[in-house]
Design a protein that fits this description.
The protein has 6 helices and 10 strands; from the N terminus they run βαβββαβββαβαβαβα. The chain is an alpha/beta fold and 229 residues long. Strand 2 and strand 3 form a beta hairpin. Helix 1 packs parallel to helix 6 and helix 2 runs parallel beside helix 5. The longest helix has 24 residues. The N and C termini lie close together (8 Å). The relative contact order is 0.22. The site of adenine has 14 residues, from strand 5, strand 9, strand 10 and helix 6.
């Protein structure tokens, strides 16, 4: 690896990452800020994309194509679907899908468009490092499927659809788009999330209450992983 990209979607998701670094150089590009640091012998570029698949794709592609990053790690929060995932718990995606991608009218499965695939897998070697770090630090981490869509999910009806259609463990609004970009550009990546809510009718309240603490759980774990790269 020569240059590492670390992404979040919201400012709150990268603040606890930036808190670990000194001498940060800020570069402005395409209506966004990119934070360059050197850490542990690595060149790192950090950015938050803004919420949703379009902004996340733009930021991931920018970090790879403009900044020359050759590995990408994502840190942030998610809504839990798997009942084993409680608020604050960590999930590392083994694969991701887009739950709101729908051309079923033409006989295709949910999440599929021609030329694409329903699930994009994350990079096994990075997942293995993450699990090793979790074991060494006694952290409970679930490896599972993350479903992404341009919706903040706050109903059991939508949550149940995503669970039954994709067998997803958690949901959020950026991961699968980052996965599509990294997969297409052959860049190793992983998506890490900590649970901020359980995507039901209380999700909005829980998200506001737990965004910061869960984002910090994810960021602190990610920093431990970066030290092992
Ligand atoms: N990220 C965190 N919680 C979420 C939710 N309930 N829906 C979509 N994205 C989320």
């Amino acid at each position: 690896m020569t240059k590492l990209a670390i992404m979040g979607a919201m400012e709150e998701e990268i603040e606890p990452l930036l808190a670990h670094f000194e001498n940060v150089n800020v570069v402005e590009f395409a209506n966004n800020k990119y934070y360059e640091v050197n850490y542990n012998g690595l060149e790192i570029v950090i950015a938050y994309s803004k919420i949703g698949k379009v902004f996340a794709s733009l930021t991931a592609a920018t970090m790879i194509e403009k900044f020359g990053c050759d590995t990408l790690l994502f840190s942030g929060v998610a809504g839990g679907i798997n009942p084993e995932l409680k608020i604050g718990d960590l999930i590392v995606a083994d694969k991701l899908c887009q739950h709101d991608l729908d051309i079923t009218a033409f006989g295709h499965p949910n999440g599929y468009v021609p030329g694409g695939k329903v699930f994009v897998e994350t990079t096994k070697s990075l997942r293995e490092i993450a699990i090793k770090v979790a074991n060494e630090n006694n952290l409970k981490v679930i490896e599972g499927t993350i479903a992404t869509g341009d919706q903040f999910v706050h109903s059991t009806e939508r949550k149940d659809f995503i669970q039954s259609t994709f067998n997803a463990d958690a949901l959020e609004m950026e991961g699968a788009s980052v996965a599509v970009v990294c997969d297409a550009l052959n860049v190793p990546f992983f998506i890490l999330r900590a649970i901020s809510d359980t995507a039901d009718m209380d999700a909005g309240f829980d998200f506001d209450e737990f965004l910061k603490s869960s984002a910090k759980n994810s960021a602190d774990y990610l920093i431990k992983i970066v030290k092992e790269l």
